[in-house]
Every structure is written in C-alpha cells, then in structure tokens.
Amino acid sequence: MAAENAYAAAGVDIAAGERAVELMKASVAASHRPEVLGGLGGFAGFFDASALAGYRRPVLATSTDGVGTKVAIARAMGVYDTIGYDLIGMLVDDLVVTGAEPLFVTDYIACGKVHPERIAAIVGGIAAACTAAGAALLGGETAEHPGLMDPEDFDVAGATTGVVEYDDILGAERVRPDDVVLALAASGLHSNGYSLVRHVLLDQAGWKLDREVEELGTSLGDALLTPTRVYAKELLALIRHVEVHSISHITGGGLANNLVRVIPDGIGIDLDRSTWTPPAVFSLVQQVGKLPLADVEATLNQGVGMALVLPESSVAKAIELSEAAGIHAWVAGAAVAEPGAPARVSLHGTHPGY
C-alpha cells in the first residue's frame, strides 16, 4: 500500500481535486461560446476578443459576487446543482442592467474537503446557468482549506466580464420625469437576505427544512432553495427592441435601495404596492418574525427581480416581450420631477392580501 504523501496527510487531497475536474469537464465545455480557446485544465482561460473589433467603442464591464448564506441551505438539503443559478444570477445580471452582454465567467469554490461529485454538481449548475445567460464558463478554481473550514463546508463566488457599446450604456442620466417603472417578477428570494430568513425561520421559529408549509405549497427547504431567475438573455433581447433608460437589479437592500441607484438627482419615483402580491415566502418571513414591513422591504426583493425605467411608449412592447419569455411584468410606478432634490424612491399603498 502506497504511503500517504505529506500534503494528503495535511488534509489536501490532490487526487480528489483532479477527479472533480474530470467530472466537470463536460458540463463546462457545454457552456462554451465560439470565442473560447482551449479546454479546461490550463493555468488561464482564453477568450478570442477579435469580435470586439466590430464595436465602435467597446466598453468592458465586470462584476464579482457570491451566493452568500444560501449555501447553508444547499448543504443542509444535500442539493448542489441549483446554487449555480444563484451565482450566475448575481453576476451576469449586474452586467446586463448596464446594457452589457456577458461574455465569460470564472468561478471560485472554497471547501473544507473536496468531494468530487459535490464539486462537479456545483460546477454543473454554474455551467448550465452560464448557458442560460449566454456566457461561457471560462475557468475557475477549487481550493481545499482543511483546518480553516469544516470538511462539509463550502462557499461559492465568481466574476464575470461583459461588453457594451459606449453609446448604448444604460444609466441614470437617461431617466426622464415622465418615465414609468416596469417590474419583472422574481422567482423567489433569489440569493439575498438569507441571514435574515434563516434567523427568523430556522433559529427563532425552530422550523425544519423538511417542514411542509401550506402557504408555500412545498417544503420550507425547497422554497428557500428556489434558484435565482437569470434574466440576461431575455433582458438583452428586450433592450434591443424597445427604448429603456435604466435598469436596476433588485438584490440585497431591497427594491427602493437598488432602484434609487439608477435614477438621477431631481427625479423621484413613487411605487405602488397594490400593483403586485409578493410570493408567500415574503409575507411568511414578515409574519413569523413579526417584522415591520420597512425591515423586510429594506432586505428582501419582495417579488421583484428587475425594475426597468423606460418611457411610457415602450411599456406595451416591453410587457409583451417579457411575458412571451415567461417573465411576468407589470407597471409598478412612475417618475416625477423634483428639481433640486436628491434622487428618491418611495413605496405607497398596500399589497393585495396583506
């Protein structure tokens, strides 16, 4: 029997890492765009940028993010092939709101111990989400951290790069006082606010993930693990067909705090809660935790994944394109002129059923 080498004795299993790479190769290759050069396993990934020569003034956009404490739900459930959608949703949709097309993604997985099948499942989900977003999974890193992380612990993060024509960059400077706000439905909690959700439902209320919750129509764990909707392809198609001024990706901080980032000073936006009913998981967190609505709205997306600020003349076509792509869309509010005042977003009214 061969003696264990020193690195393995210290807790790092190189052979397990190599097996994980072999298991993920097919799923990674399936995400590749024609511009990807070479395969998985080198020291760096290559992306042929010659296509950018067709741009008048190409601007590169980049974003980095992670899945956050939602990984604790995945680990407890033993489900590893969905959080890739959470990672890619957080990454590429931060690019898309600027008008940028995501080109490629790199990922980083840190773990206490490499379980090859688990790592391959995580990467497989990332690759599938990349395909859904039209981006290539260009490469990544799996790092084993014995002594720093428990053997079952892991975390997932990544970075993405995209490109947009300079003249086509969306942003606050395009917004006008007579614009309206079009909301695009979220699939659920997405990947934000899980520290609050876990604290309320698991720690304080003592609920178990296998608890069947009538309001949710499924188990608590399945509801919490619902993957983030990836909007990239559909949103890029929409802004090619209709005029859009700015877009906000509704992530940590909630609807108002994210939307205010894409409107200029001198503009206020009033959102009407009566235009939509958030999915049951949001009211559940609020009711079980006995939380003020303001606290929930400052943390969770409340059922809105994207908010588009666009001229009223674009609304009908934008809704038509969104609904055709399977994304529910509705007018949630409007912009008003407030000369000399800082940018403002306020919510009014009551959600139906609340």
From TrEMBL:
Pfam family, one: AIRS_C
Chief site of localization: cytoplasm
Catalytic activity: 2-formamido-N(1)-(5-O-phospho-beta-D-ribosyl)acetamidine + ATP = 5-amino-1-(5-phospho-beta-D-ribosyl)imidazole + ADP + phosphate + H(+)
Location of the PurM-like N-terminal domain: 59-164
Keywords: ATP-binding, Cytoplasm, Ligase, Nucleotide-binding, Purine biosynthesis
Span of domain PurM-like C-terminal: 176-340
GO molecular function: ATP binding; phosphoribosylamine-glycine ligase activity; phosphoribosylformylglycinamidine cyclo-ligase activity
Keyword Transcription: no
EC number: 6.3.3.1
GO CC, one annotated term: cytosol
Family named by the database record: Belongs to the AIR synthase family.
Name this polypeptide is given: Phosphoribosylformylglycinamidine cyclo-ligase
Gene (name only): purM
